[in-house]
Amino acid sequence: MRAAFLRALGGPEQIEVSELPVPRPRPGQVLLAVRASSLDPVDALVRSGAFPTQTPFPFVLGRDAVGTVIDAGAGAEDLLGRRMATSSLGHDGRQGAWAPAAVVPRERLYPVPAEVEDAVLAAALHPASTAHLALHRHGHLVAGETVLVGGGAGNVGSALVAEAARCGARVVATARRRDAARVRALGAAGTVTTVDHTDPGAADQLRELLGGRADLVVDTSGRLDPELLADLMAVRGRIVVIAAPPNPPRIPLARLYTRDVSLHGFVISRATVEELADAARGTVRLLQETPWRPRITDTVGLDAARSLHERLDAGGIEGRVVMRIRA
C-alpha cells in the first residue's frame, strides 16, 4: 500500500511516500480502510521529535481517520463493515492514518452517523475533541456560567464557543472584527459577545464585560495577559491553558489563589482512551446540534504530505487540511 511515513525523526525531508506492507489486525484490533484524514499541528511535533513518543520505523503519520472496517482480529469481528472514526493514531507507538489501511484498537474506534461526511468529521475530530475536553474534563463547565474564549475565530476557539453556548453558558470571545459575526452566530441570539483583541481598548472592554465574573477561561491564542485574567476571574473560577506565548508571562499567583482560582494545563495527546471516546461523542453532537463546522481550507492527497509539513513548519497553514486517502 502507498503511505506517508518516516524512517527517522527530523524535518519534513524525512517524510517518504511509497509502498509499505498492508498491516494485519491482532486480537482486539481492526483494519480500517481510510477514506479521509487530516493535518494536525501535533503531527509536526511528533515528526520532529519535539513531543517525545514511540515511533517504530517505518512510522506512518496522521492522527485522525474516517473509514470502513475491512478486517478484524479476534474479539472485534462484530465491527466488520461498519463506518468508524478514530482520533489517536500516529502516536505512542500506534501507526498513523496517512495510508489506505490502518490498524486501530477497537477501544479507539467511534461510530459515524450516516449524515456526517467523511471530510467534515476528519477535520472536526481534533479541534472539537480539544474543545470538549477543555470545557468539560478540565474546565468542569456548568450551565449558566460565563466563559471567556481567547481566539474564538479559530477552529478550536470556534468549537469552544459553540459547545459552551450549546451547554447554556454565556460566552465572551476575542475575535477580529471581520470574524465577529461568524463567531456570534455559533450561539443563540444574545448568548455570544465578541471583543476585537486588536482594538487598543480591548482589555477595558473585557473588564467591563467580565470584571470578577468569568467562571471559566480557555485561551487558544496564548495572548490573554494573566494580569488581565486576574481582574476578570470569578471566585473559584478556572483557567484552562492550551496555548502559551513564546516569552513566559508573569503569573499573579497571589491574586489568583486568594480568589480560589485554579489553573489547568491541557494537551489532547495526554487524554485517556475513555476521555477521547467521550470527546468523539461530543464532536458528533456538536456537528448535529450546532452550526459549527471546521473551516476546511484545502483538500489534498498523500503525495502532498511533505509539502504540507513544510508549510506547517513555516506557519503557512490556516484552517484545516483534509487528506483524501481513498475515493
UniProtKB/TrEMBL annotation:
SUPFAM superfamilies: GroES-like, NAD(P)-binding Rossmann-fold domains. Keywords: NADP. It comes from the Bacteria. CDD domains: zeta_crystallin. Transmembrane segments: none annotated. GO terms for molecular function: oxidoreductase activity. Pfam families: ADH_N, ADH_zinc_N. The keyword NADP applies. Residues 10-323 form the Enoyl reductase (ER) domain. This is Oxidoreductase.
